[in-house]
Amino acid sequence: MSEPQKVRIVAFLCRWCSYAGADLAGVNRTKYLPNVFPIKVPCSARMDPELVLKAFAEGADGVLLAGCHPGDCHYLRGNYKALRRYNLLKKFVTQMGIENDRLRLEWISASEGSRYAEVVNDMTSKVQKLGPLKWRREIAIEA
Amino acid sequence: MKPEPAAKPKVAIVLGATCSGCDYSLLDLGPTLLDVTDAVDIVYWPTGIDSKLEDLEAVPDGGVDLILFDGAVVNEDNLEMARLCRKKAKILAAFGSCGAYGGIPGLINTGSPKKILLEVYQKLPTFTEKSESPAFEGENALPKMLGQAYALDQVVPVDVYLPGCPPPLKLVASLFTDVLSGKAIPKGTYYASNRAVCYECKRVKENKDITTLHRYHEIQPDPKRCLLEQGMICLGPATRGGCDAVCCTQNQPCRGCLGPLPNAEDGGSEMMSALASIIAVSDENKDSDYSAIFNNLNDTVGSFYTFTLAKSTLGRRKVD
């Protein structure tokens, strides 16, 4: 069997819950696939659609967004805003031809280290099935 | 014709992939157009005067003071014209939203050229019979498609931008005034306001809490109140002003033809972010996933990137 495809997943993790959850996964020495690049953001609502689009355009094969469970947001309503943006963004990227599994929103609390590992493993295997996203980075003229 | 003491500035208006609406909009100048044509020497303008491409080619390089390039670049013919214009022009202006941002032709970047041709020549619901795709080779061949649509500045360096669909006449007039007075125009100048359309819109803006989104034809909006607050997708907050909010004055939401604001890289995503943020969180929908409100949104790309897709972050087409 051939080597699994090397896909890159950018994860925007909220600093209060999901990043702490990812930390816990590390402290617990939970093993999970190494394809994810975590980025700490102050709140899941900080996830501007532009950051996600940029990640896709610059070579990410998948983007994972993670924040606190509904009702647990440190800033009260941040994750609701993230959820609304995600739904709109999802419609946009689908129309642009990016597959459904490449963009995912999950609620991961600070105590859910194992769940973080599960989500990463699950998403990585799904994106690996789809293969790399070949988005053209440079503006080049086909002649 | 009387001999002129000083040489008049030479102007050309060149077409790319365009509907020519920008050209025709110049006719709205009315009798003033005659003053303009007296003040400048139009060397090439296929829609307006009897001129051939040879007339433009005959001018020495850098000999045309102002070229307005109207349209996006989607095929080899447009590309050749764009390169020729760059060679001949002192000031090359991307004229209209298509030249400046890719415009409506830029929307083909959602699919491959093959898919587009199939759609246009075989699948259109208005066709009763399927027609054959045009020939791209051999005699009478059409120019080859480039595979995606480009804004003018993605293929050649551009000096000034005159966005708009069509560009508001007062902005066109200010460009002509600057050129005629010989003023030095900094490279990359946008002939549009640096502030959003909302600054020019007279509607009452109160509390933004949307519960439903409406499509253009579905409601008759209240002429006094902000259209966004009434649940219409109005791109005003993420779009350059300069048009005196002409669409909003006519009870139509802004579609974003003057392009993203100076500090926004991707106007459409800014607007998506803004629109999603003003959807009301109430007790009823607190536990919902907020996806139902977007069900009425049939064309997300077309709604947020009507004119700017070719220059947006994801607008560059995927490799198939």
Q: Would you give the CATH topology of the largest domain in chain B?
A: Rossmann fold
CATH class of the largest domain in chain B: Alpha Beta
Strand order of the largest sheet of chain B: 2-1-3-5-7-8
Query: How do the SSEs of chain A run, as a string of H and E?
Result: EHEHEHEH
Mean residue pLDDT of chain B = 87
CATH superfamily assignment of the largest domain in chain B?
NADH:ubiquinone oxidoreductase-like, 20kDa subunit
Physical arrangement of strands within the biggest beta sheet of chain A: 2-1-3-4
Structural class of chain B: alpha/beta
Rounded average pLDDT of chain A: 89
Beta fraction of chain A = 15-25%
Major interchain interface with per-chain residue totals: A-B, 33 and 40 residues
Distance between the termini of chain B: 58 Å
Give your account of this protein's structure.
- The complex is a heterodimer of chains A (143) and B (320).
- Helix content of chain A is 39%, strand content 16%.
- By secondary structure, chain A is α/β, with parallel strands linked by helices.
- Chain A has a single domain, classed as 3-Layer(aba) Sandwich (Rossmann fold).
- Chain A has a 4-stranded parallel sheet with strand order 2-1-3-4, with helices on both faces.
- In chain A, α1 crosses α4 (113-130).
- The N and C termini of chain A lie far apart (38 Å).
- In chain A, 51% of the residues are buried.
- Chain B has 2 domains: 10-106 and 138-190, NADH:ubiquinone oxidoreductase-like, 20kDa subunit (Rossmann fold, 3-Layer(aba) Sandwich); 193-320, no CATH class.
- Chain B has 10 helices and 8 strands.
- Chain B has helices at 21-26, 32-39, 53-58, 76-88, 96-101, 113-123, 169-180, 246-249, 267-277, 300-304; strands spanning 10-15, 41-44, 64-70, 73-75, 89-95, 145-150, 160-162, 189-190.
- A 6-stranded parallel sheet of chain B has the order 2-1-3-5-7-8, sandwiched between helices.
- The longest helix of chain B is centred in the first third of the chain and has 13 residues, at 76-88.
- The interface between A and B is large, with 33 and 40 residues.
